């Protein structure tokens, strides 16, 4: 169904009230949101840091060539075997050869493992977010639009998964499965427990939108259920989906890091920030930099996604007001 300029309805980030605007409303609203976003220093700073991590992950092979050491290379000359493998030099061995220092005991370059760990963390988090988004949106739309038994079945499944102790299940399953394709398994397990949270919100907004006039008009014009769901209702949920997926990424980054910290996530020697933090536990007292560097990268990435998602939610909500 095609809207005329006087019938255009714009949905808020929370699926709020529709407002009528002229033909120039979408571009004007878009420009307003962009200007408001650029004026928000926190949102811009978070976006810059996230973009930096993404570029770092993509350019990891090139950056490692520039630094001179790969993530699996050992530099025994950078540690002192007489002191149990403590890095030589200040701040964990930071210097021209090793920009972020080296790992105690084995001498692996921390910078190389940080940039490759960024690739692993972002790949798992973004893949899980995409899969979770697809499942959540589809099941939420179907349950909200059709209602009845379909809604009952989907809702009971969502309630069961949301009430289930997800972390315990993840640890148990990943511990029992082989180490091969562990990154794929992490994405599947995280997504399995993650989609109900988005689906519940999409379901609720779909139940409200399906009673609106433009949906009734589409039905009267002979549109199929699939056309109504994906061409009429789904576009009105775009803002909500963007906010929810943005807020989901930091949770998945933290989940991957937590599982790797517990030893059931990414399998060594594949670099992972959570795995590096776990390895740094015995070295807190003698080499705090080994913990602080991956810990800081992880903290700032989770914080950036969280703040960015919250800022986007507020901006979209204000733009719809």
Low-confidence stretches: 1-25
CATH fold-level name: MetI-like fold
How much helical structure, as a percent, in the residues? 55-70%
Element-by-element helix/strand order: EEHHHEEHHHHHHHHH
> What's the CATH class label?
Mainly Alpha
CATH architecture: Orthogonal Bundle
Mean pLDDT: 83
Biggest sheet overview: 2 strands, antiparallel
The best one-word shape is: elongated
In CATH terms, the superfamily is MetI-like
**Count of DSSP E strands?**
4
Number of domains: 1
Rg: 24 Å
Order of adjacent strands in the largest pleated sheet: 1-2
Distance between the termini: 25 Å
Number of helices: 12
Family: Belongs to the binding-protein-dependent transport system permease family.
Main location: membrane
Protein name: ABC transporter permease
Organism: Glycomyces niveus
Q: Summarize this, please?
A:
With 321 residues, the chain is an all-alpha fold. It is 67% helix and 2% strand.
Features:
321 residues, 12 helices, BP-dependent_transpt_permease, transport, mainly alpha, membrane, ABC transporter permease
Textual characterization of the structure:
With 321 residues, the chain is mostly helical. It has a single domain, classed as Orthogonal Bundle (MetI-like fold). It has 12 helices and 4 strands, in the order ββαααββααααααααα. A hairpin with a 5-residue loop joins β3 and β4 (86-87). The chain is elongated, with a radius of gyration of 24 Å. It starts with 8 loop residues before the first strand and ends with a helix. Mean pLDDT is 83; it is low at 1-25. This is ABC transporter permease. Pfam families: BPD_transp_1 (PF00528), OppC_N (PF12911). It is found in: Cell membrane. The chain crosses the membrane at residues 42-64, 122-148, 160-178, 184-202, 233-253, 289-308.
């Amino acid at each position: 169904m095609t809207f005329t300029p006087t019938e255009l309805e714009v949905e808020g980030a929370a699926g709020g009230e529709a407002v009528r605007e002229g033909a120039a409303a979408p571009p004007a609203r878009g420009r307003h949101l962009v200007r408001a976003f650029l004026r928000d220093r926190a949102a811009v700073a978070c976006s810059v840091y996230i973009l930096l991590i993404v570029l770092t992950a993509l350019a990891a092979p090139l950056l490692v060539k520039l630094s001179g050491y790969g993530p699996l290379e050992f530099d025994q000359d950078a540690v002192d075997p007489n002191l149990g493998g403590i890095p030589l030099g200040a701040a964990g061995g930071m210097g021209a050869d090793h920009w972020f220092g080296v790992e105690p005991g084995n001498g692996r370059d921390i910078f190389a493992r940080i940039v490759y760990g960024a690739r692993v963390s972002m790949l798992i988090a973004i893949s899980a977010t995409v899969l979770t988004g697809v499942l959540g949106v589809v099941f939420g739309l179907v349950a909200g639009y059709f209602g009845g038994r379909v809604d009952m079945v989907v809702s009971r499944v969502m309630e069961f998964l949301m009430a289930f102790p997800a972390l315990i299940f993840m640890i148990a399953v990943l511990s029992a499965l082989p180490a091969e394709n562990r990154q794929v398994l992490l994405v599947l397990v995280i997504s399995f427990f993650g989609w109900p949270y988005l689906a519940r919100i999409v379901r609720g907004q779909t139940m409200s939108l399906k009673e609106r006039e433009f949906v009734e008009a589409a039905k009267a014009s002979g549109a199929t259920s699939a056309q109504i769901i994906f061409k009429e209702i789904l576009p009105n949920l775009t803002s909500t989906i963007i906010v929810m997926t943005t807020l989901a990424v930091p949770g998945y980054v933290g989940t991957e890091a937590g599982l790797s910290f517990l030893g059931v996530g990414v399998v060594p020697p594949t670099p992972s920030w959570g795995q590096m933090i776990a390895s740094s536990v015995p070295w807190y007292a003698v080499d705090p930099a080994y913990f602080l560097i991956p810990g800081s990268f992880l903290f700032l990435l989770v914080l950036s996604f969280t703040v960015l998602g919250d800022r986007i939610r507020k901006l979209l909500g204000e733009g719809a007001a």
